[in-house]
Design brief:
367 residues, alpha/beta, Rossmann fold, Arc Repressor Mutant, subunit A, 3 domains, 9-stranded mixed β-sheet, 3-stranded antiparallel β-sheet, 12 strands, 44% helix, 13% strand
Length: 367
């Protein structure tokens, strides 16, 4: 794209919420035409900001676009513009999409099958347990899990996905060369290896406070649904859920202890109509199972469709509880495939999970 390098330059000059850049490009007709504008011509354009056209023109003149591209390549940071192939499809439809996205790792077309999970930076043990289990269960059946790599629920979610070798995407509130929080450096590297870390903020951008509410619209925008695990009444997680509603996405919430202040956010959402989440099955059901899990080679079980793996696992489960490890050993399947099959069987109502990773059949028999 001819204007690609100019989109990049403007993203460095006018980072963050993209409406300033969109207004500027609309005024001049293209990012290249805006880049060629003089200080006098910029004076009539919207979205310049408090520095005025003179200050913007001066900064623009001091920016070497070829050097910017070279520095990005040297640091392993890629970028994609709004109108290019490879730009996340779900962001195309949100209000104020970022004109340019910087990323490390891989952006994939399949990332559209995604759920965002957000919550408190200081979760309770209950919140930690639930966030980890939901993340693992969703990742085990191939759902991409989006979060913000912040302390607390975000970090737990990313680690849960990685533990089952799933794919997760982290949306940063800083440049991709600025690890925040610092203790998540190793986590960030792991996410890059198997998923992606993205940001609308150019390299070198510090984690300023206003960046995080802005980036929340991207977290929700990348996903089909946003799940809130624990959140206080003024939590940033609720900002993400507000963005999700504005974007026409589903909002779901995990209930908690009524005396825990971190339950107030999710409970408020549930009162307002958010889907109550007790397990990953609730999330998958809300999204539409026929789209998520088309049956592969259905077994001969009448009108019930199962994949061959689901049927194999179902035959090993009895009315007496059977341990997960035993199912893995007897089936000869990978742990991820066994967990995926169990998840789907549980959603269909054929299998029930018991405490301690034991499984038993329900009263509904398909054979």
């Amino acid at each position: 794209m001819e204007d690609r390098i100019y989109w990049l330059g403007w993203q460095f000059l006018l980072p963050g919420v993209g409406k300033r850049l969109w207004s500027l490009v609309e005024y001049f007709g293209s990012p290249g035409a805006a880049w060629a504008a003089s200080a006098k011509e910029l004076s009539g354009a919207p979205g310049i900001g408090t520095e005025g056209p003179g200050g913007l023109a001066q900064r623009k003149a001091g920016l070497d676009l070829d050097s910017l591209v070279a520095k990005l390549e040297a640091s392993g940071i890629s970028f994609v513009c709004y109108s290019e192939p490879g730009y996340p499809e779900k962001l195309l439809s949100i209000y104020d999409p970022p004109p340019v996205i910087f990323y490390r790792g891989r952006l994939k077309a399949g990332d559209s099958l995604a759920v965002a999970m957000v919550g408190s930076r200081k979760p309770s043990p209950y919140g930690q347990l639930v966030a980890e289990k939901l993340a693992k269960d969703l990742a085990a059946v191939g759902v991409i899990v989006i979060s913000g790599m912040a302390r607390g629920i975000d970090t737990i979610v990313h680690k849960g996905v990685l533990a089952v070798k799933g794919r997760t995407v982290a949306v940063m509130g800083s440049g991709l060369d600025v690890v925040y929080p610092r203790e998540n450096k190793r986590l960030m590297e792991q996410i890059i290896d198997s998923g992606a870390v993205i940001s609308e903020f150019p390299p070198g951008s510090p984690p300023e406070a206003w960046h995080f509410p802005a980036r929340n619209r991207i977290i929700s925008g990348l996903a089909q649904a946003t799940v809130v695990v624990e959140a206080g009444e003024r939590s940033g997680a609720l900002i993400t859920s507000d963005f999700a509603l504005e974007q026409g996405r589903d909002v779901m919430a995990v209930p908690g202890n009524i005396v825990n202040p971190l339950s107030r956010g999710p409970h408020r959402l549930i009162k307002q109509g958010a889907r109550l989440v007790e397990g990953a099955g609730d999330i998958l059901d809300e999204l539409g199972l026929e789209k998520l899990f088309p049956a592969n080679q259905p077994g001969d079980v009448g009108s019930i469709k199962m994949s061959a793996e689901e049927e194999a696992i179902y035959r090993l489960v009895t009315l007496d509880p059977v341990a997960l490890d035993e199912l893995i050993a007897k089936s000869g399947l990978s742990p991820q495939k066994v967990m995926a099959a169990l998840m789907y069987l549980e959603i269909k109502g054929f299998v029930r999970q018991m405490p301690g990773k034991f499984y038993t059949r329900t009263g509904r028999n398909v054979f």
